[in-house]
Amino acid sequence: MSSPDLSQPKVQLSDDEWRKKLSPEEFAVLRRAGTERPFVGEYTDTKTQGVYECRACGAELFRSTEKFESHCGWPSFFDPTNSDAVILRTDHSLGTTRTEVLCANCHSHLGHVFTGEGYPTPTDQRYCINSISLRLVPTDA
């Protein structure tokens, strides 16, 4: 599991600065580790080819080539763009232990990663990511 230094993100803004940059819904998920409701996110079912960036800072996180249909209600990827794009940390909220996924560039909350669920992917991982944490930049056709 990747665990770069969590103390110093490359992009550092105050809560007030984040609130000016993000909508209240984006702030709640990205900066307060909230979760959008399942099946409502704009990227849950999209098949558009492109790069998924962090909505907070614009760092490249995932590519459409690693996105797959998990039918869980959120966009799912089997691997980030590269291992340094995200930080994984243990999350003990909600009375269970999960692995939280953060943007390595600004430490914004993206979602969680799950392993061993039996999806037919190369990594046997499901990065379950909030649509509101992402911005899709389509590739030129």
UniProtKB/TrEMBL annotation:
Keywords: Metal-binding, Oxidoreductase, Zinc
Keyword Signal on entry: no
Endpoints of the signal sequence: none
GO biological process, any: response to oxidative stress
Residues of the MsrB domain: 15-139
Necessary cofactors: Zn(2+)
Membrane-spanning segments: none
NCBIfam families, per database record: peptide-methionine (R)-S-oxide reductase MsrB
Annotated protein name in UniProt: peptide-methionine (R)-S-oxide reductase
Source organism of the structure: Mycobacterium rhizamassiliense
